[in-house]
Amino acid sequence: MTTTFISPTYLITDVRRVLRNRRAMIFTVVVPAMLYLVFGATQGDRNDSVGHGNVAFYVLVGMAVYGAILAAATNAASVSLEQQNGWTRTLRMTPLRPRGYVATKVVVAMTMAALPLAVLAVVGALTGATASAAVWIGCLTLSWIGSSVFAALGLTIGSVLRSDGAMQALGGVLALLAFAGNVFVPLKGTMLTVSEFTPMFGVATLARYPLTGGATVYGEAVPLIVCVVNILVWGTIFAAAAGFFYSRSTARQ
């Protein structure tokens, strides 16, 4: 009898493995919090009003999006190392089928994506990030849900590169997408228009919607439909690519 669904045993084992990886935990959990402290909590305008909160909270949401995406994508990309080490061949001798393996990887990625959000919530509350409880919950929840799109990107890159280089390449790609997607630096005019077509823009803008209602810090408005279409299009592209390249990589084993 085969199993196509998530394996609880493998899920728990994989989460424990990730938690023991200190370098990965620092990279995905500590770094976003440090970036928030540098660019949000310590700035002179941190208490200025932005939408239904302040500047510190606006920056916090951006780092929450980046941290959740970074954690989800890098954990999904770990498939590259498991393929390289022959672990996926071992799993093929168990009842867990490829679909169950991929589903379990996605759940692990989303579980780990919640960690930087929890850390940022605590750090932000202690350093003056201000917004109502509803806005806090809405922004962080949307950040977490949106990161699932990039779990598929991580799986794609991991399946293509199948080496330690997958993690390094992914880190660089995500940093560039964050700059291009209005996550790190507020954009305006033509740059904002171009940004609307990049993968991280939809998730970041939607995550800030409970705070700003779609308005940028420069007063430009981004319609909700733009965010939704961006997420759906890039989510479809990443999911299709993940399915194709993972199937091709396992077929070669």
TrEMBL record:
Membrane topology: Multi-pass membrane protein
Transmembrane segments: 24-43, 55-81, 102-127, 133-157, 169-187, 221-246
Record domain ABC-2 type transporter transmembrane: where: 15-188
Record's keyword annotation contains Transmembrane: yes
Principal localisation: membrane
Subcellular location per the Swiss-Prot or TrEMBL entry: Membrane
KW Glycoprotein (keyword) present: no
Any matching Pfam family: ABC2_membrane
InterPro entries to which the protein is assigned, alphabetical: ABC2_TM (IPR013525), ABC_2_transport (IPR000412), T7SS_ABC-Transporter (IPR051328)
Signal peptide from the UniProt entry: none
Record's keyword terms, sorted: Antibiotic resistance, Membrane, Transmembrane, Transmembrane helix
Coiled coil ranges: none
Protein name, entry field: ABC transporter permease
Organism: Gordonia hankookensis
